[in-house]
Amino acid sequence: MSRSGPPLVTGVAPKEGPPGTRITIRGENLGYDPKDLIGVKICGVDCLLAADWKSPSKIIARSGPGKGKGDIIVITKSGGQGTCTVGFKGYYVQIGPLQESAIWIDESQSVSSNLRHGRPSSPLFSKDDEDPLGISDEGNQAKFSEEDLLELFPEASGNMSIENFSSSWYLLENHHSTSFDDLRAGLAHMKRKAKHRSEGPIAFVKTNLSSTLDCLDSLQNMYSKFCTDDIRGEFINSYAVLLMQAKSCADGLFQEVLGRKDKADSTRNALSVLQRFKFLFYLPLNLQRNIQKGDYNMVINDYIRARSLFADTQVQVFRKVYKEVENQINEFRDMLKQKLMELPNSLENQKKLIKYLISLECSGDPAWECLVNQQKWLTTILLRCKEQHLQEEKESQPNGDVFGTPQRTSNLSRAKPGDSNSLKLEHGSSKFTNPQRIMYIEELCEILTYNLPDLWKLGQAYFSGALIVKEQTGEKAFKIDVSKHSQFKQMITDTISLFSNLVRAAFLPQTLPEKLSAEDKTKYGQWNQVIPGDWLPSCVRHIRNCVWSLSLLDLPGESPTVINDLAFDMRTNCMFTLLKQAISDIQQLHIKETWIVETDDESGGTTQLPALFENIVNETIQHLHEVVVQNKQGEPEIFGQRTVQKDSTQLCSELLQAFVPCLDCLAFTPVMAGGSSNIADDSKKRFSTSSMDFEEHSLQFDKRLIIMLSNCSHTMERIIPRLVENLNKHGYVEMNKALQTTRERYEELDSKLFEAYIEEKSNPIVGAIEQNMYRGRFDWKTCRKPAGVRNYLKDVIMKMIEVHAEVFAVSPSFVTRVTQKVVESVSEEITRVIECVTEFNEHGKLQARVELKALQETVKLYITPHANQCFKEAMDNLGSMKPEDKKLLEDLLNKYKSQMKFQMMCFYGDSLLRNSVSA
């Protein structure tokens, strides 16, 4: 670009506008600096004073009072006067009577001629006021009639000049069909106009600087001309008087209008201040509303913002409003602190409240105060829980309220107490409720489980600094006192110790710390009623669940040890109590005996008692395994301590042996188990599947002995090994030693029962042998030739068969053992009687030999070495037998076998009998 070339204007924006329009001029050679630019003419009016040189190709200027279309000419020192290829159109905007204007306004179109006569006229509006939205594309025809609008807005008007102006009326009247987008554009137009008007006189003068200077030049020229022409100086004064009169007249005409304008300006200025600082003026109301809605974050943010802006203000109005804000915030702090101290409260809500108080710079340490208050509250409700349940227990005792042991179901499984406080067990017409101590420990565990974790987590958050950090700045409100950490640990330990001592006082008072005084022990509660053992598993479950929940918190100091020791002691106490209760239950089984014998191939004939005994033991073991023995993560092994091992082994041994006194009682006590009223009607009519009858609704001694002998043998041989195996499987120690001791007890009982039964059954048989042998004045010296086996021996055999049948009906496995002992007793008695005979004749010897041989042949399957020796001694006492007597002996024996065929079948099989007869 050559600096010597003339300026050339090639572009202008905008291309039209009223005086004062900001114009961007583009072109070539528009000057190489601001000093080079000496003139800018727009529509023939020099606008250099309002021109701003930007570059050789760009100038920004404001248009003057030029009217009509004209050129834009740029004049520079280097290039001279330039040319223009584009034009600019200037036009005058209709100006209202209250609007500033930099040009002379022709008022003939807007001011009525009757003003000169002093008559009032209607308000005048400018072209802009007729359509403030700038979207008058619908004409002036009203869309609604005035009657309809009055009905809709009875106390309003669509006239913008009066106070009851209604924007809704105006829009329905003038813009009924205008779209929403057009209305939004109209709103933007109004905002631009308001902004333009708010720029004030300085902006107006700046915009119309050239016109103002022209007016001043014109006034100065007029004054010089008047001074030159007015030699005497009178005209100037007269003109001045006329101007003052004109000014007074103008002021009189527009005084009311100008007064309203001043009032509107003052109102506008006040509204501007309110609008500019509306945050502060609306803040008290907004704070109140946000507090009521619970939007505390908004309250705190607004307060911090107001404090940063107006805390040090010297403006009285602002100070007054800010003082009100401070009063509301003080009340808000008190409300937050009160809410923080109200318990129970969730952990998240507590953290929020603490952070709110920290952000509001509350005095003191709200987080620590909350921790102390929560620990005191937790201690209070634990003690209150104890007092409440103690009182309810005392009130229940005079009324006769009782609680029962959970009943066993039909399959002999133990029922467990429920976890619900409303559980009630019905037994006949009696109703049993949960013991107060069961509901007490459940509530204690629930209180500690739900509240201690919140206290611990809140403390962890406090000491990590998370609670004392201001969210707005991220900095800590204050430095945490290190000594409070040890205080907090002690608070947790004290709470755990209180819980432990409360539980121990209710269930394990003997395990309370020895250092506690009697008064302190009374503080933890003194309970009177005895809790049945069946309720203890429920207590242990609650305690173990509570300990497991607290173990996840990684509690400090001695707290884990205290709570774990409590759980361990509760487990061991429950185990020992249930084992003792099971022992007591087993010892009372004799009251449930029905004497109904059931026989199977495995166990022979037994009653229901061995099964009841086994079920009680197995259910106790299983119950203890689920509740006590089975360890959770972090729990100590229940059999890890030697004292527990020793006591549990002793109790298990007593448990296995507890059935022995029951069997002994049933066998040797003449009164029927459970009393005669416990025997069912059908059981009174039959003894077993062999239809053995009761005698006068009671069982004979020998029948009781053989039934209990069978029960004892079945228990010793089958049930005890299974129970020991089950105990070993569930972790009980030294069960082999317990098994050995138990076997000895059962063997002693077995021997006692067996000897008593043999004595009971043998004595009648043996006692009648000698008497029956000599019945009818029989004498061995005068014995006739034998004709067969005498009746006394047959009577002995029939009684032995009776014993055989009785034993076989109960337990076939005992037949051999019992029959052998009976045979021994019979053989001993017969041998004794024969040895006592002083003299035999030949026929007597043969008769004795036939009877001995017949007896031997009948019971040969049950002859023991001792019985065989007795028979041999008896035979030797008879001497040798003559050859001619052998044939007779054989015939007599065959005759006996033929006659006693069915009787002999009781002692050995039918095939053996046939083989023996054929032989």
Written description of the protein model:
The chain is of the alpha+beta class. A hairpin with a 3-residue loop joins strand 8 (68-76) and strand 9 (80-81). The N and C termini lie far apart (158 Å).
Give the secondary structure arrangement, pairings included.
Layout: E1 8-13, E2 16-17, E3 22-28, E4 37-42, E5 45-46, E6 52-55, E7 58-62, E8 68-76, E9 80-81, E10 83-84, E11 87-90, H1 127-130, H2 146-152, H3 167-174, H4 180-197, H5 200-207, H6 209-229, H7 234-276, H8 278-293, H9 296-310, H10 316-341, H11 347-359, H12 366-396, E12 424-427, E13 430-433, H13 436-463, H14 483-507, H15 518-523, H16 536-551, H17 559-587, E14 598-600, E15 604-606, H18 609-629, H19 642-657, H20 659-668, H21 681-685, H22 701-729, H23 735-773, H24 791-810, H25 815-835, H26 842-858, H27 865-878, H28 883-899, H29 901-904, H30 910-918
